[in-house]
Amino acid sequence: MRSILRIGYLVLGLATAIQGSLVLHDDSFQPDHILRVTARDYTQACMERYSVLVNGSSPGPELRFQEGKVSWIRVYNDMEDSNVTMHWHGLTAFTAPFSDGTPLASQWPIPPGHFFDYEVRPEVGYAGTYFYHSHVSFHAVTAWGALIVDSIEPAPYEYDEERIIALSDFFTKTDEEIVDGLTSTNFTWSGETSAVLVNGQGRLATNATGSCKLAAISVEPGKTYRLRFIGATALSFVSLSIESHDVLEIIEADGHYTKPVKTSYLQIASGQRYSVLLRAKSESELRNEKSRQFYFQLTTMGRPTVLTTFAVLEYPSSTTTDLITVPATPPLPVANITYGWLDYTVEPYYPDYDFPTVEEVTRRIIINVHQNVSERTVWLQNGYDWVQTFPKSPYLVDIYEGTLDLNASYKRAIDSGYGFDNQTRLFPAKMGEVLEIVWQNRGTVDNGGVENHPFHAHGRHFYDIGGGDGLYNLTENEERLKGTHPIPRDTSMLYAYRKETTALAPSGWRAWRIRVTDAGVWMMHCHVLQHMVMGMQTVFTFGDQTDIKAQARTPGRGYLTYGGSVYGNATYSPSVRHFF
Ligand SMILES: *[C@@H]1O[C@H](CO)[C@@H](O)[C@H](O)[C@H]1NC(C)=O
Ligand SMILES: *[C@@H]1O[C@H](CO)[C@@H](O)[C@H](O)[C@H]1NC(C)=O
Ligand SMILES: *[C@@H]1O[C@H](CO)[C@@H](O)[C@H](O)[C@H]1NC(C)=O
Ligand SMILES: *[C@@H]1O[C@H](CO)[C@@H](O)[C@H](O)[C@H]1NC(C)=O
Ligand SMILES: *[C@@H]1O[C@H](CO)[C@@H](O)[C@H](O)[C@H]1NC(C)=O
Ligand SMILES: *[C@@H]1O[C@H](CO)[C@@H](O)[C@H](O)[C@H]1NC(C)=O
Ligand SMILES: *[C@@H]1O[C@H](CO)[C@@H](O)[C@H](O)[C@H]1NC(C)=O
Ligand SMILES: *[C@@H]1O[C@H](CO)[C@@H](O)[C@H](O)[C@H]1NC(C)=O
Ligand SMILES: *[C@@H]1O[C@H](CO)[C@@H](O)[C@H](O)[C@H]1NC(C)=O
Ligand SMILES: *[C@@H]1O[C@H](CO)[C@@H](O)[C@H](O)[C@H]1NC(C)=O
Ligand SMILES: [Cu+2]
Fold first, then answer.
1. Relative to the alpha carbon of 445, which ligand is closest?
2. What is the DSSP letter of 502?
3. Are 225 and 219 a contacting pair, CB within 8 Å?
4. Alpha carbon distance 179, 521 (integer Å)
5. Peptide bond preceding 59: is omega within 30 degrees of 0, i.e. cis?
6. Which of 110, 239, 241, 433 has the most CB atoms around it within 10 Å of its CB?
7. How far, in Å, is the centroid of ligand 9 from the Cα of 357?
8. The CATH number of domain 2-154, selected from 3.40.630.10, 2.60.40.420, 2.60.120.10, 1.10.1760.20
9. What residues have CB less than 8 Å from 557, skipping those under 6 apart?
10. To the nearest 5 percent, what fractions of the chain are helix, strand and coil?
11. What is the pLDDT of residues 150-167, one digit of tens each?
């Protein structure tokens, strides 16, 4: 008995030692994926712009991870004058400490000329559609790529092939001009999007000069396709439909299979993903059509101007597909916003279900969001903004250094009545709590304006319990939730319901429930890049110092300083902790 115990201790001790030691990432270390970030003039939709690129293009290369398996991704910052990070959008609960890619929240950014090795292990059950993007400045407008987590089990839906359809925005101003304008005391708007692109491609008008083309999505007659839609837009909330193909069947939202929902259109906000099944027309059906190419029609919603752009669904044809002609008049009706689209109706595919009931909720956090103009024009959460320059060092670093007292922060947050600590600008939560988080839209202080905000959560996905106009009313929403099965997701829309109300008047809410199970520093923010730059971001801590540090008692000093020894460069191989 005693010897077995001793062997047990020995094995345990050895395991701790191995886990705790640093591994030299020299030439013998092979990352699973390599991404190189640069900045240069780059042309899209026949327009040129100085842009941040991943592996020389926008979008960057598509990545594939496998559920249950560790992926190491080496990200090089080949820029001379900007930091970078890479964020694994939707997968953050499965990232190693310091690997979530949030600058000044979970890590120091990667300095110019350096690289960082990210470690991600998607949990089994999270196969689905994701994307990656830089979380610094306005980079994510171009510095992003599709990220698919492959399943080890067959998908619950059958399809022949899949296609990725990722949406992004084109702005004529550079990242620097946009950020300078938005943060200036002389506030200057970025301007509206100049083009909504599909897989980085687009064309605004037939007369555009240059070789730019509409994106072509090729399909073969009779086959069933899984179309994976990715909302990688900076700003645009897009309605999308396909000419002569009005039955789309939604099967996935934000990495989770859903029960099938038939629809003729999708609404995709920045940060959201959907998979739909599309049954391609048969040869005989095609014979009744005037053409073997059909337009995807994309319309922006909720902005002062409506932009309609196109891509092409292309069947094999003896003539070449025309990717230059843009329809003079849109073939489909120009879409309007559907408030509450999919809310209370879409259900999770798998019944293994951990939805927290209202009785289980231990704390309700109401986050009032509004815009105010003082010295600068800012978006505020309960009166406070959060920008990358607010903390002096990343929260996670401070937790390991012992300089951030989360117990004290938690006490201040509870005392405030809002769950918010205005000294650290944190929403701290303790393990085991069950939070209900309500985003409450309110009119701007100067003119009562309201906007749509797609709110995104890092960490484990929340259960979306819906949204509505006016002020959140718990009793009424509980009534609406009866008999429904809310889905887990990571980005959902706080609608505005109108363009204008009166200053600070409630105008729409969105509510989430989440069990505090995953210790860490998790940002929750609007995914519109302009709004983020203007302060529309919050940081939650889940767990106290002990819970968070339990994942990596002594991670190595190299994580704790900007450009520390876990950040490699051309002449230096870093020593890196293997957390998983
Ligand atoms: C990115 O580019 C680097 C070299 O420039 C290459 O080694 C790597 O394989 C590329 N990554 C992907 C995912 O294609
Ligand atoms: C890069 O990040 C460091 C640490 O946060 C910061 O001090 C520095 O100003 C940043 N550099 C640029 C160019 O933004
Ligand atoms: C404010 O910015 C606008 C646009 O960049 C510029 O035209 C204007 O001159 C600026 N005004 C001041 C007072 O700096
Ligand atoms: C294309 O035509 C439209 C409408 O005639 C015009 O407004 C636009 O300036 C033209 N664009 C180019 C690039 O020539
Ligand atoms: C959108 O709203 C406008 C104005 O109310 C209306 O004319 C149009 O038909 C609507 N479009 C659709 C697709 O419902
Ligand atoms: C708006 O900003 C002004 C000027 O800084 C300030 O006095 C006021 O309290 C702010 N109001 C709100 C509701 O944020
Ligand atoms: C925080 O409070 C918990 C009890 O709520 C305690 O166990 C823990 O030691 C405290 N941590 C620190 C760093 O004070
Ligand atoms: C935090 O809020 C309290 C109570 O409203 C206020 O007295 C204090 O000045 C605020 N502190 C900061 C740093 O904003
Ligand atoms: C919430 O709705 C219920 C039922 O409609 C109503 O009785 C109650 O007054 C509302 N609560 C608030 C705070 O408005
Ligand atoms: C590379 O990293 C090493 C170790 O951090 C550092 O001493 C050296 O100055 C770095 N080289 C460059 C060019 O930054
Ligand atoms: Cu927003």
1. 6
2. S
3. yes
4. 25
5. yes
6. 110
7. 19
8. 2.60.40.420
9. 564, 565
10. 15, 35, 50
11. 999 999 999 999 999 999
Give the residues surrounding ligand 1 with Cβ less than 6 Å away.
33-36, 55, 61, 63
102, 87 Cβ separation under 8 angstroms: yes
Which two three-digit tokens encode residue 466? 């819906």
Please tell me the CATH superfamily of domain 358-552, with its number. Cupredoxins -  blue copper proteins (2.60.40.420)
Whether the domain at 2-154 and the domain at 358-552 fall into the same CATH topology: yes
> Among the atoms of ligand 4, which is closest to the Cα of residue 46?
13
Q: How far apart, in whole angstroms, are the C-alpha atoms of residue 235 and residue 171? A: 10
- Whether 473 is in the pocket of ligand 9, judged by its Cβ within 6 Å, is yes
Q: What is the pTM of this model?
A: 0.95
List the chain domain ranges: 2-154, 161-314, 358-552
The CATH code of domain 161-314 reads 2.60.40.420
**Sheet of 216-218, strands arranged across:** 216-218, 308-314, 293-301, 237-242, 266-268
DSSP state of 558: G
Return d(Cα 102, Cα 84) in angstroms, integer. 10
Judge if the beta carbon of residue 562 lies within 6 A of ligand 2.
yes
- CA–CA dist 113, 309 (Å, integer): 38
Percent of the chain exceeding pLDDT 90 equals 93
Which of 160, 166, 131, 316 is closest to 240 using CA atoms? 166
Contacts of 287 (CB under 8 A, 6+ apart): none
The CA R_g of the chain, rounded to the nearest whole Å, is 24
User: Which distant-in-sequence residues (6+ apart) come within 8 Å of 362 by Cβ?
Assistant: 432, 433, 434, 435
Structure-token pair, residue 352: 């293994």
Q: Say which ligand is closest to the CA of 188.
A: 3
Determine contact, residues 530/370, Cβ cutoff 8 Å. Answer: no
What DSSP element (H or E) covers 401? Answer: helix 395-401
